[in-house]
Amino acid sequence: MSSSATPAETTFDVIVIGAGAIGENVADRVVQGGLSAALVEAELVGGECSYWACMPSKALLRSGAVLRAAQKVGGAREAITGDIDVQAVLNRRNKTVNDYKDDSQAEWVDGAGITLVRGHARFTGVKTLSVTDAQGKVSELTARHAIVVSTGSAALLPEIPGLRDSAPWTSREATSATSIPARLAIMGGGVVGAEMATAYASLGSEVTVLSRSALLSNQEPFAGEMVRDSLVELGADVKIGVSATRVSRDGSGGEVTLTLDDGSELVVDELLVATGRVPNTGDLGLDTIGLDAHSWLAVDDTMLVAPGDNDALGGVWLYATGDVNHRALLTHQGKYQARAAGDVIVARALGKPLSTGPWGAHVATADHEAVPQVTFTDPEVASVGLTEAAATKAGYTVKAVEYNIGWVAGASVTADGYEGTAKMVVDEKRQVVLGVTFVGQDVAELLHSATIAVVGEVPLNRLWHAVPSYPTISEVWLRLLETYGRDASSH
């Protein structure tokens, strides 16, 4: 990590709090637009995704996925003579996160013409911040045009007696662990819980998942069902509808005992809590500008924090991008917001025309109904847009079709006995795709085609002319259209 330094200048056109992937993108767009920008970071440049979330979690998952993929192909299967090398996986994870050093990221910031200020930022008033560095030295910074909050989110710890005192893992500890616990309980059946259950079961842990509702409950129901079946096959115990009522740890680093609401007890070596997220806004001094501490920052589609009746927010100067605005808690969606926010800040500062209608250059329209997401379980879950239930709830006239991906020729050569499901949700009135879900091996790379279809609102009768290459798994697109029916898509 580079040492902290007081900036030679204390006034910038734009100040971005948080130098994660989202904050970096905001600052980069601002500088490319001709304004000056400072990035304030209290931890590592590159943020949560680079060191404790997206990248290390996928590194932990990848080796097991590759091994199982080889085991599903005759010829390769017979060549496998050993088990997964746990230490090699952890070493590869460490390489992925640059051994938790951010020198290369800081060099990129400098090369992009952005000023990096290390320390913890707090608002002191309109367009003003104090930044306290690791040595306790305080700097005062002022923004001419805008301050952007890109501080992300942190793990939510539910109010369960004894939980906080038991030193549970959050996603950070799970992705940065230096050894694999023999027994791991995971509280939560969302993306983090499902991915880490897959990773740790692959690495040899005896995994127990406690989920109050179905796994991946915001996805199509078959997605969570297929992931649950896969986890059970990996040796995990998946308890649906079961919660902990009390947690205790036997001394420092001892066993963790969970009392469950079905009357049983579960004893493990570590407990991972993955039950949701809270905004990283608690110590930003939001109260100095009339906002509540610990709150999500609601924004409009240009990422501007709406002033309402708050006089401090008048003048169009406070923005929030990424997790902290609670629109779509995904790195790629936050970077998309960052591009819109950076460009609109430049346009407003320089008096340029704004493009703020749906799908304009200065808005994040896709956040509402066109968000893509991959859950890197085994099988992978790749989805974009609305599920059938969400589309129906939103008032669309919906028709949905499913197809067994294993029936596609490309799937049969990808893996012996390939199992997977694809689903397409159609707006019957407009004859466009509202949502697509793929579950199966290697489906992540199918998702961008679906994203283009949803965002582009490509008519079904035109999609018939997008011919999938043979033999690839992408041929499932043709099969979905055939299942829907060409006559139905021609009206």
Spatial separation of the terminal alpha carbons: 60 Å
The total strand number stands at 21
Shape designation: globular
Largest sheet: 7 strands, mixed
| Separate helix tally | 15
Strand content: 15-25%
CATH-defined fold name of the largest domain? FAD/NAD(P)-binding domain
CATH superfamily of the largest domain: FAD/NAD(P)-binding domain
Which architecture of the largest domain per CATH?
Answer: 3-Layer(bba) Sandwich
Query: What's the average pLDDT?
Result: 96
Percentage of residues assigned to helices: 25-40%
Overall tally of structural domains: 3
- Show unreliable segments: none
Rg from C-alpha positions? Answer: 24 Å
Would you mind describing this structure in some detail?
By secondary structure, the chain is an alpha/beta fold. The protein has three domains: 174 residues, 3-Layer(bba) Sandwich (FAD/NAD(P)-binding domain), CATH 3.50.50.60; 120 residues, 3-Layer(bba) Sandwich (FAD/NAD(P)-binding domain); 107 residues, FAD/NAD-linked reductase, C-terminal dimerisation domain (Enolase-like, domain 1). Helices cover 29% and strands 23% of the residues. The chain has 15 helices and 21 strands. The strands form five sheets. Strands 1, 2, 3, 4, 5, 6 and 16 form a seven-stranded mixed β-sheet that branches. Strands 17-18-21-20-19 form a five-stranded antiparallel β-sheet, sandwiched between helices. Helix 1 packs parallel to helix 9, helix 3 runs antiparallel to helix 4 and helix 3 packs across helix 7. The longest helix has 20 residues. The radius of gyration is 24 Å and the shape is globular.
